[in-house]
Amino acid sequence: MNAPPRPGALGPGRGRSAPARLSPSDRAALVRELATLVAVMPISDAVDTLARQPSKPRTMAVLAEVNRQVKAGHSLAHALPATAFPPDIRATVAAGEASGRLPLLLQRLADTLEAELALRSRLLAALAYPALLVLVAVSVIVGMLVFVVPGIAAQYGEAGAELPLVTRLVLAVSAFLTRWGWVVGLLILAGLLALLVARRREAGRARLDSALLATPVIGRFVAASEAVRFARLIGVMLAAGLPVAEALQLVAPAMGTRPWQEGTLAIAGRVRAGASFAPALSLLPAAPALLQSLARSGEASGRLAPLLESAATAIDRQLSDRSRVLLSLLEPLIIVVLGGVVGLIILAVLLPILRLNAIAGQAIGAS
To answer: What is the pLDDT of residues 190-209, one digit of tens each?
Structure first.
C-alpha cells in the first residue's frame, strides 16, 4: 500500500485557473455524486459524466477544471481546485487514491459533509422562530413608542394633570427615541460594522471567538458543534490512512473558531513530539468529556477512527436534544417578557385615563 501524499503535495498547481468557490451544500452534493459514480466507473469517466451534466454555473466551472486536469493525467486529488475544496478534503481523496479505497472514503466524506449541513440546518431552523418573534415584538414596541405614545403625551400635556410614575417613564423613553432614535440606530449599525471588521482581523476574531466560547450556555453549544466537526473530520482522515499529526494539521483550518484552530494545531505539535492523542484533547476549549473519553478508549483499543465517529454522532444527538429543550423554554420566556413590555406601555397609557375618569366620577357624585 502506498503512503498517502503529504499535505504540501496537494497544492493547486502552477498555471491553473482559479474556479469559483463552492458553497458547503454544493460541495457536499458534488462529493456525493462523485462518490456514487466512482463506485461504478473509472475516475476519469465519473468526472467527465458530471462535467457534462447541467448544474449551477459555479459547479460547472469547478467540474470543467477538474475534468481538464484529470484528462491531462493528474490525480483526482491534484485536480480538485483549492478554491473549491479545502485541504482536508483533498488530502482525504489523495489518501483514498493511494490506498485503493477511494469509493469508500468518498462515501464517508460525503456522509460527513452532509451531517455537518444537517446540523447547521437544524440549529438555524431552531433559531429562526425565536429570532423572528423578537424582531416582530421589538418592532411593535418601537413603533408604539415612536408613533403612538407621542400623540397621547400631547393630550396629557394639554390636560395638565399629574401623571403616574410609570406613565412618566414611558413618555420619557418615547421622547428620547423620537428625538434621538436615529442616533441609536447609527450606533447599532456602527457596532455591527465594528464586529464585522473585527471578525476579518486575526486578533479581533480570536478575541470574539474566545468571548463566544466563554459565554454561558451559548459557549457550550458552540464547543459541542466544534467537537462534532473535529471528531468527524479526524475520523474520516484517520480511516483514509493519514497519520494523526497530519490529519490534525489539515483539519485545523476547518474549525469554525480560532481557539479550536489553535488548539488543534497545538495537539498536532504534541502528537509529533510523541505525546498521546487523547490526553492532548484538553487543549481544546470546553471540549465535551465524551469526546475525550471515547478518544481515550479508541486510542487504547486501536480503533480511534470509528470511536471518533461514534463520539461525533453522540455529541450531535446531545446537541440537537439540548437545543430543542432550550428553545422550548426560550420561546415562552420571550413571549412573556416582550408581552410584559407591551402590557406596561398600554398600562402607562391607560392609567391617566382611568385616574381622570375616577376624578370626574367623584366630582359628579359630589355635585
So the answer is: 988 988 888 787 777 888 88
pLDDT of residue 328: 82
The CA R_g of the chain, rounded to the nearest whole Å, is 29
What is the distance between the alpha carbons of residues 152 and 155, in angstroms, rounded to a whole number? 5
> Which of these, 244, 233, 33, 32, lies nearest to 116 by C-alpha position?
233
Residues 21/58, Cβ–Cβ less than 8 Å: yes
Long-range contacts of 130-134 (CB under 8 A, 24+ apart): 130/327, 130/330, 130/331, 130/334, 133/331, 133/334, 133/335, 133/338, 134/334, 134/338
Kindly state the cell numbers that stand for 110: 460525503
The domains of the chain, with CATH numbers, are 17-85 (1.20.81.30), 111-367 (1.20.81.30)
Q: Report whether pLDDT(343) > 70.
A: yes
Q: Whole-angstrom Cα distance, residue 40 to residue 227?
A: 34
Return phi, psi of residue 242, to 5°.
-75, 145
Position 271 scores a pLDDT of: 92
Mean pLDDT of the chain: 83
- One-letter amino acid at 169 equals L
Sign of CA dihedral 179, 182, 186, 191: positive
